[in-house]
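S1.2 Input.
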Amino acid sequence: MKNMFKKVSFVLAVILIALTFTACSSSSEKKEANTFPKFTGEDLEGNKVTQEIFKKSPVTVVNLWFTGCKACIMEMPELQKKAEEWKTKGVNTIGICADIQGKEEVKNEAKKILDSKGVNYTNISIDSGEESDKFMMNITTFPTTLLVDRNGNIIGDPILGTIDNEKATEEINKRIDEIIAKDNK
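S1.3 Output.
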């Protein structure tokens, strides 16, 4: 019985130590995840784009989508309306089409989708690279919307799923106003 107690105590101690290390590493990983990764890419017209796009506005609304995502496509007209409203506050809106990555046929499909939905906010494709690939691999829900400040920091939690309801819109507008207020200080 004493041997069993020692073994159980040892296993519990190892688990406790492992949890302590895991908690430490997840906090540093969380800090990393709060910055949009450096990237190169291009808009759908072929113009080069980098993370410098964030410097132009106090807030950039980043909508991550892909061509086979029905919910992504469904929310586009509403997102276009919001993008026009946000623009009056100096907010930039960009879409990042996750499945283009150098595939011309997918790029053409993305253009058709955007045209059919009346979208004119900037949409880009990010080139493959270690930082951007790691970031995109962590996106498990589409669409996902992020708010990024002019320094490339992701502010608040990602908004998972469509933002075509009043509650989501109110939350985004509140966060946008807070980011702009901090930017003006």
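S1.4 Remarks. The helical segments are 2-33, 70-87, 104-116, 130-137, 166-183.
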